[in-house]
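Input (structure):
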């Protein structure tokens, strides 16, 4: 009864029966690069043709940062966040520091982004 099929890239690559069935039925398949809240929000916004407001962009960036911190604390070596403005990146660095993690900004504007990792 589904109208769309949303899955993580790692699941999609294994080609389980659910993916094959969705393809056979002609369902639109959305493949998320990572299993994060930010990826899911972006996918749903795409499906429902929503344009996020500027303020929700900040909230989404903070949720993405919280998710990245959680993943690093659970053992992922590092997580690179989506490109953001300088003020949002500053807040992302503060959040990483508060969680006792290291962070660095990488790339050039406008694609400059934060990477969060454990300090060795």
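Output (sequence):
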């Amino acid at each position: 009864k589904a109208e769309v099929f949303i899955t993580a890239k790692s699941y999609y690559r294994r080609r389980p029966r659910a993916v094959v069935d969705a393809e056979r039925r002609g369902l639109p398949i959305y493949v998320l690069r990572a299993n994060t809240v930010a990826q899911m929000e972006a996918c749903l916004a795409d499906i429902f043709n929503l344009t996020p407001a500027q303020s929700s962009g900040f909230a989404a960036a903070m949720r993405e940062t919280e998710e990245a911190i959680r993943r690093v604390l659970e053992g992922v070596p590092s997580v690179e966040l989506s490109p953001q403005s300088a003020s949002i990146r500053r807040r992302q660095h503060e959040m990483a520091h508060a969680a006792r993690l290291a962070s660095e900004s990488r790339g050039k504007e406008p694609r400059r982004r934060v990477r969060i990792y454990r300090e060795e």
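Notes: The beta strands are 5-8, 29-32, 78-80, 102-106, 113-117. The mean pLDDT is 90.
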